[in-house]
Amino acid sequence: MSINSQAQNNSDIAFEVSFTEPQAHYVDVEMTINNIKKDDIILKMPVWAPGSYLVREFSKNVEDFTASANNERLATEKVRKNAWKINTKGKKSITVKYRVYSFEVSVRTSFVDESHAFLSSTGVFMYPEGSLNQPSTVTVIPHKNWKKVSTGLEPVAGKKFTYYAKNFDWLFDSPIEVGNQDVFEFMASGVRHEVAMVGGGNYDKEKLKIDMAKIVERETAVFGENPNKYYVFIVHNYLSGGGGLEHLNSTVLGASRDGYTNPKTYQGFLGLVAHEYFHLWNIKRLRPVALGPFDYDNENYTTNLWIGEGFTAYYDNIIVQRIGAYTPNQWLSVIEDELNAVDNKVGNKSQTLSEGSFDAWIKYYRPNENSNNTTISYYMKGSLVACLLDLQIIEASGAKQSLDDAMRYAYNEYYKKKGRGYTDAEFKAVLEKFTKQNLDQFYADYINGTKSLDFNKYLNYAGFKLVEQATDQTKPYLGISVSKTNSSEIATVSRNTAAWNAGLNVKDEIISINGQRVSNALTYVENVAVGDELDFLINRDGIMKNIKVKIKTSPSKKVRMQQLESPTEKQKAVLEKWLSL
Question: Is the peptide bond before 142 cis (omega within 30 degrees of 0)?
């Protein structure tokens, strides 16, 4: 697939990226701007990457910024953290050069070394202020011995390694991999898919082609169409890797290079593929109204990440089950594990889903030692809310519809018909349409409140109930975790536990307990009784302190899903629809 080279002639902005010192982790950028109509121009670099809700200050990596015209140096001035002003002196065309230090391993940041270059576009390319809608071209000059470029950008016909972006939103949403990646392709849902494997690994290409194609087809069936003709998976294989970031027609995934033959690890990889590919619709096109057009200078706040990310997290597991990579029982175990994890997280009673979404910029991506006590994951809890709503829709429709129908309707209504994102109220109205219920109380309890999810009610629709497992009330529990590098240093303290109530602090070094030198307080406490009062000697910033700690039991509970002995025909129908059997 390529566009006519005439497109390049119609673009007033052209980039050339090269790699003169890849071993030092630099990408060199040359930007040419034509048809300038002002005496000065301001170039800006985004401060964040869409899909990753944290201001990352990409401009901190920019060096050696210069501008010239006809070999004449132009005056430049940095006017804010991510903006440079250029005095064009009336010139109609200028050339800007700068370098970007790229040495952060993640799916959202650029990384360059002697083996390859991964360019996360928001941290590499600048745009003229007020010109986000302008098209541009990017020409990649690989370092010597690098032979391949993988990107979702459209190739320009007749121009090797030259690509076209119809606007800066597309450019910023199109990562670029340069090197000698192992590339293979498959067709699914009428779309050509490229997989670029970086870093080696024990993967089976033919198996991946089959399983990834199944994911594509099952997710396309949810929405009724696939909006692309071409899609790129960039997979970075590490000793131990994970994570992903969605884009309009591509994604970047992190994986463990030798994990493909481990059944559980491979299931996790397929879940990651399913998650990021589902974003092709949910968040990239069907999206909260705040998430597009983007403001690349500031935070873009929404209370709906529990839909964009949480619903996607629900679907990534159920899609893996639908293609047969999970058995139904394995998938139900995933739901059970998530329910226990959310119910036992202290922050579940402190932060609502809507607050967690809104504050992702300052909390979710910036966790600290107290986060477990104050925050909840909009991924995991949002996934559980999606599960409840799915069951409600199936039950209300007599097992004729599911959450799939609500998602497809919302996609058609807001992305295709209205060409915009949805508001909180509009998505709630979609859910009410399909659940056939007023969801005011549901939202008050579970979205804007911290009430525990009533899973028993919704699981009953499918012939299940929750059974609380008996816990050992004689088992002692201190309520801390210790540092991975120093088992004597406290890393976290959980709210309302023995350690919390006594006043043990993060970073306290535990020297002894009851006069006995200890290397790991957790091991010591395992052998005492609930109700015992222990004398902790701790080092706090060089000062020795004695703290009395009365040991309590763990507040954690565990539930399991149990199928009813004699489910009704209606419950059987709901279960069959839920599992898409």
Answer: no
